[in-house]
Design brief:
Low-confidence stretches: none
Number of helices: 6
Distance between the termini: 25 Å
Helix content: 55-70%
Number of strands: 3
Shape: elongated
Structural class: alpha+beta
Oligomer: single chain
Radius of gyration: 19 Å
Mean pLDDT: 91
Largest sheet: 3 strands, antiparallel
Strand content: 5-15%
Length: 111
């Protein structure tokens, strides 16, 4: 890279700041919430359909209390939400952006 271009970009970086503190915190919090393999597996399951705690526990061969704990983390991070259906709560992804992020991570790791 040309030294003059580099210096111009450096000046822009210093004057604009990168990243904003609130953006950096949101990014870090997102990766903390998704940085555990069980939560990743829950997210991938919920990308297919809404599921109850019991159904997720059965699919992942885990205890219901373990799944509930992981779902709380995902709810707090606003990644999943639940709707009451009779006596059960069925969880679903709030949006599918996270699936796109996971697909990009897989592509990156396969390179």
């Amino acid at each position: 890279m040309d030294k003059q271009i580099h210096n111009k970009k450096l000046d822009q970086l210093v004057s604009n700041g990168i990243p904003l503190d609130d953006h950096a915190k949101k990014i870090a919090d997102f990766f903390k919430a998704t940085g555990e393999p069980t939560r990743v597996r829950i997210i991938l399951a919920l990308a297919q359909t809404s599921l109850s705690v019991n159904e997720i526990a059965e699919i992942l061969d885990m205890s219901q209390s373990g799944i509930s704990h992981q779902l709380k983390t995902l709810r707090d991070a606003r990644i999943v939400s639940g709707d009451r259906l009779g006596k059960e709560v069925h969880y679903h992804l709030i949006d599918n952006h996270i699936v796109n992020i996971f697909e990009q991570v897989i592509k990156h790791s396969d390179e």
